[in-house]
Design brief:
This is Prenyltransferase. InterPro entries: 6-hairpin_glycosidase_sf (IPR008928), 6hp_glycosidase-like_sf (IPR012341). This protein is α+β, with helices and mostly antiparallel strands and about 375 residues long. It is about 50% helix and about 5% strand. The chain has a single domain (about 15-345), classed as Glycosyltransferase (Alpha/alpha barrel). It contains 13 helices and 8 strands. The strands form 2 sheets. The protein has a 5-stranded antiparallel β-sheet with strand order 4-5-6-7-8. Strands 1-2-3 form a 3-stranded antiparallel β-sheet. A hairpin with a 6-residue loop joins β5 and β6. The longest helix has 21 residues, at about 160-180. The relative contact order is 0.13.
Length: about 375
């Protein structure tokens, strides 16, 4: 599907549609001619962040650009379903296998389907998604959690991280939705998702203690693994620890450093908890990181009034676009985060209610 002038989200008092378009353009400007979407031109690339940036391109109507990013990932996938942990200029600079890097493509492809209805893109990428999620399920531990990485001998390293597992729970659900779309049911993924969901909800001891990181606080809510009253309780429990009024969210509890991506991801979690006003407030709070060209600085050490690191990353800008879309609630894929039931949306070809681009009703 060619690039199109899709209606972009706007958040009154925070971002206009033209400002969102400028941010999408800034992301596209960092893309290489072969489709690679690094953190910034000449910088590192990892599969998770590349998918997030591609999702923002689809929200912005830059569908050909998003497709090129997904095709780049498909070409770089290794036979076991993995990607290297890091690339630079197309070369592998960190060969490690990480489960969340493998899984997130499923979320991106499902998001792309919701945005575009492009069946040919789904068909083209389905084998890549299937290999990736088969690897994820092979990395699942007896606790139900998924190992962060594989050892050099190909066995799971046994360490499970809460944020990565919450992302993988969303990825498995997206993969199940894609399997229904292409007519290739994957019962192993259903079982893996159910066991992982139980681990996330009932087995905190299954995960390494990284509670000083804000992502471990909000990501189970963002990804739909924790909902309802438990989600509200979780958000309340970490609020004073991580939220810096007027500036955004600390990346790490014990550092005077707010980061744009974490702030926007909290906004996504708040939208998922039906706290749209609070989500809007957080998106507004991080606008001090916006540059004149619509890109975003990664973070601010507010004790020193210093930007750090001194870089403007595609994934930070992408988090802004995705948060704006979820808050506005008008885009065809906005409910992917704002309402977890979007992953249960009818997806079989030929079913009228499954028309991508049509209304998605919040529960």
């Amino acid at each position: 599907m060619p690039d199109s002038p899709d209606a972009l989200p706007e958040v009154p008092g925070v971002l206009t549609a033209d400002q969102v378009r400028q941010t999408v353009t800034a992301i596209a400007a960092e893309q290489s001619s072969d489709g690679a979407l690094p953190w910034f031109r000449g910088g590192q690339l990892d599969a998770w962040d590349a998918v997030e940036s591609a999702m923002a391109l689809d929200v912005g109507g830059r569908h050909d650009r998003a497709a090129a990013a997904y095709d780049w990932l498909a070409r770089r996938q290794r036979p076991d379903g993995s990607w290297a942990a890091e690339y630079r200029d197309g070369a592998v600079t960190a060969p490690a296998i990480e489960s969340n890097h493998a899984g997130y493509l499923a979320v991106g492809v499902w998001h792309s389907w919701l945005c575009t209805g492009d069946e040919s893109r789904v068909d083209r990428l389905w084998p890549t998604v299937r290999r990736a999620l088969d690897l994820v399920t092979a990395m699942q531990l007896p606790t139900g959690a998924v190992s962060w990485a594989l050892r050099p001998d190909g066995t799971p390293d046994g360490t499970a991280l809460l944020t990565g597992n919450a992302s993988l729970h969303q990825a498995l659900r997206a993969g199940i939705a894609l399997a229904g779309l292409v007519g290739e049911e994957q019962p192993d993924w259903d079982l893996a998702a159910a066991d992982l969901g139980r681990a996330l909800g009932e087995r905190p001891e299954a995960f390494a203690d990284r509670s000083r990181y804000s992502m471990d606080w909000y990501y189970p809510v963002l990804a739909g693994a924790v909902t309802g009253a438990p989600a509200e309780a979780r958000l309340a429990a970490g609020w004073d620890t991580f939220v810096v009024p007027g500036l955004g969210v600390r990346c790490v509890a014990d550092r005077p450093w707010v980061t744009g991506a974490e702030t926007c991801e909290l906004a996504l979690a708040l939208a998922a908890a039906d706290r749209v006003d609070d989500a809007t407030e957080q998106l507004a709070a991080m606008q001090h990181l916006r540059a004149d060209d619509g890109s975003y600085w990664t973070g601010l050490v507010y004790a020193d009034d210093a930007r750090w690191p001194v870089e403007r990353t595609t994934w930070t800008a992408a988090a802004v676009v995705l948060a704006a879309d979820a808050i506005a609630g008008t885009g065809p894929a906005a409910a992917l985060f704002a309402e977890p039931a979007a992953l249960a949306w009818p997806a079989l070809r030929g079913v009228p209610d499954a028309t991508p681009g049509g209304p998605v009703v919040r529960g």
